[in-house]
Amino acid sequence: MFMINGSVPTNCGKSYTVPIPKGIVTRQTLTADNFRGISISPTITKQFDHAVLDRFSRYFATFEYQFRLKTAQLSP
């Protein structure tokens, strides 16, 4: 439907970030450096992203040094 309408609803771009500890965190080590953030996005947004990647991946070029930034492939 996104492709047919040519637009994406505003709420599809919204997500929230959750702090995840980078190992064992004690009261003495509660600093921002000891956490990493993960973004939680709506499921429909993730499905749209994978549909775009599936259809247009041949037009996207990535480099070896971008390994950590690549999105995971969905298994069938």
Draw up the topology in text.
Blueprint: H1 2-5, E1 16-21, E2 35-40, H2 43-56
Describe what you observe in this structure.
With 76 residues, the protein is α+β, with helices and mostly antiparallel strands. It has one domain (2-69). The protein is 24% helix and 16% strand. It is built from 2 helices and 2 strands; from the N terminus they run H-E-E-H. It has helices spanning 2-5, 43-56; strands spanning 16-21, 35-40. The chain has a two-stranded antiparallel sheet. The relative contact order is 0.15.
The Rg value, from CA coordinates, equals 17 Å
**Which outline best applies?**
elongated
* Order of H and E elements: HEEH
Overall residue-averaged pLDDT value:
75
In what range is the share of β-strand residues?
15-25%
Tell me the structural class. alpha+beta
Taking the alpha carbons of the first and last residues, their distance comes to 22 Å
Helix content: 10-25%
Number of strands: 2
What about the largest sheet? Answer: 2 strands, antiparallel
Outline the low-pLDDT stretches: 72-76
Number of helices: 2
> Going across the major beta sheet, what is the strand order?
1-2
Number of domains: 1
